[in-house]
Amino acid sequence: MKKGLLILSVLILFASCDVVVIEAPYDPRDNFTGRYTVEEYSETYDVLTKYNVRIIKDADPYSNVVYIRNFYAADIEVFADVHGDRLTIPRQIIDGYVIQGTGRLDYGDLVLSYSVEDRLDDSSLVDFCNTVYFRR
C-alpha cells in the first residue's frame, strides 16, 4: 500500500509540472548570410564580372540590417535592409560610389539589381547591374 501511495504521489508531482520549450526566434537575415560567388552583368558597359562577397548580419539581434562585403568588387561594404525574402539597398555613398538597389532570394541564390555611380570618375556614367549571388 505504501509503495502504491508513493508511486501515485510521484506521478501526481510530475503531472503538475509544466514543460516549457524555448525556441530561438526566427531571423530572416539568416537566409542571406554566408559566402557567395558573384556574376555581375553591367548593362552600362556590357561586361560580365565574377568575384566573391560575404554577407554578415548586424550585431543587433533586433535589427533587419545585413552588410555586403566586397560589393561591386570594389572592396567596399554596403548595408541592406532585409524584409522576408527581399533585400533593399538604400541610397548610400561609400568611398565616392553612390549605390542603391533591390534583391530577392531565388532558391537559395540572391538576385540583385542595383545602380552604382562613381563620383570620382569624370565620365559620370551610372552603372546599372544585374547580379546573381551563388552560394558557395
Automatic annotation (TrEMBL):
Residues 1-21 form the signal peptide. It comes from the Bacteria. PROSITE patterns: PROKAR_LIPOPROTEIN. The keyword Signal applies. Keywords: Signal. This is Uncharacterized protein. It comes from Roseivirga thermotolerans.
